[in-house]
Amino acid sequence: MAAIIPIRVLTCFCCILSFLLLLLHCNSLSQDGVILLKIKREDWRDTRNALSDWNESHQNPCAWTGISCDTFNSVTVVDLTGASISGNLTSAICALSNLTALILQRNAFTAPFPIGLLHCKRLHKLDLSSNHFAGTLPTRISELSELRILNLAYNSFSGSIPPAFGMLSKLEALIFHNNSFTGEFPNFVGDLKSLKNLTFDNNPLRPGVLHSELGNLKQLQQLCLQNCSLLGRIPTFLGNLTQLEELDLSRNHLSGEIPTSLMALSNLRSLFLYDNNLSGRIPANIGQLRSIESLDFSDNQLHGTIPDGLSNLTYLNSLHLFSNSLTGEIPAGLGKLRYLSYLKLFDNKLSGWLPQSLGTFSTLIFVDVGKNELEGPLPKNLCRGGALYSFHGSSNKFSGNLPLSFVDCNSLHYLYINNNQLSGEIPPGLWSSPNLLRLYLNHNKFAGKISC
């Protein structure tokens, strides 16, 4: 009588046989190559044929697209950025025993966080950004104890951040922006002593405050919490983060004054506090931000004068103070800054002259000082650098002639100087400026003829 083989045993035997046949067919491939080919065939969909060289005819997987190896030809990095791969992310890829970086940015993976990746115990970098992942994050994330960089930006993850993230003691970058995380800003981040980059922009958190534990992150270089529903005042303890190079607290509900302690951040290159409810004056010691390149305090309720200390910011490239209630004169020293290209001071109550040296020492690109109470002549060298794209000076009290430099400014696309007290003849040739798209001269005291 013939023996009856159970279906489960037969199925298992077939799986083993298929795998042995694959090994036989790829006997010249390394073990890592066999693993990658199996993943490509069984788990992933390569609709754009980005992995065309992942095949047996290319016997060295270290030369395949997106693959890097160590000196022993063991796969250490899988980087398939922008390859449009979809399908399943399972623990199969963790069979690459020396895998330290898995970078799948800008692909088409879906479903919840791939739990199988928690078996990749040697991972230093995991980048799943710009995919279609959704759902909550795993509470077992601490199993990836070697993780240095975690980037989950531009997905649809939701729920609160599990406290287990605070156990990733080697984490240097935590990048979560543009998801749907809820709850208050997590206080566990204060335990991540090695953290250098914390980016949490554009998550619909419940209104909450920044916890004092953040002040312990002495290695932090980038802190971006834009549009995170933060309440209260900007904490003074942020001034303890002396390694910060970027601080973005814009588009929240922060109120009160700008702490003078922030001016001690001598390594800061960008400081964004725009679109809050900040009041009071711009700190007088702002000139201490010696490394600053971009400064944006716009759309707040700041008052008082613009501090002269801004003239000491040697590397300042972009200054945005628009839509506040600032008064007094614009510091003349701003015109001597060699890197200044973007100056937006519109919708304030500024008075006096626009610095006459503006454009003499730097290459201006965009200047908007409209809706103030400025007077006197327009600077003669606004387009000296040959890159001025737009000048907005409408709704002020500017007087005198229109500078001839506007005529020779081939880069100029927009010129708004309406609602002023400018006089004299409009320089010949302005009408035929090659790239000028919009020209507003109305409500001035110009005379003479329009010449073409």
Could you give a short description of this structure?
The chain is mainly beta and 452 residues long.
CATH architecture classification of the largest domain: Alpha-Beta Horseshoe
Mean pLDDT: 92
Radius of gyration: 30 Å
General shape? elongated
Kindly state the number of beta strands: 32
Please bin the fraction of helical residues: under 10%
CATH topology of the largest domain: Leucine-rich repeat, LRR (right-handed beta-alpha superhelix)
CATH C-level class of the largest domain is Alpha Beta
Question: What would CATH call the homologous superfamily of the largest domain?
Answer: Ribonuclease Inhibitor
- What does the largest sheet look like? 17 strands, mixed
Strand content: 15-25%
- Name the structural class: mainly beta
Task: Provide the domain count.
Answer: 2
Which stretches of 5+ consecutive residues score pLDDT under 50?
Answer: 9-17, 19-26
Summarize the SSE layout with pairings:
Elements: H1 7-25, H2 31-42, E1 44-45, E2 67-69, E3 75-79, E4 86-87, E5 101-103, E6 125-127, E7 134-135, E8 149-151, E9 156-159, E10 173-175, E11 180-181, E12 197-199, E13 222-224, E14 231-233, E15 246-248, E16 253-256, E17 270-272, E18 277-280, E19 294-296, E20 301-304, E21 318-320, E22 325-329, E23 342-344, E24 349-353, E25 366-368, E26 373-376, E27 390-392, E28 397-400, E29 414-416, E30 421-425, E31 438-440, E32 445-447
Parallel strand pairs: 3-5, 5-6, 6-8, 7-9, 8-10, 9-11, 10-12, 12-13, 13-15, 14-16, 15-17, 16-18, 17-19, 18-20, 19-21, 20-22, 21-23, 22-24, 23-25, 24-26, 25-27, 26-28, 27-29, 28-30, 29-31, 30-32
Antiparallel strand pairs: 1-4, 2-3
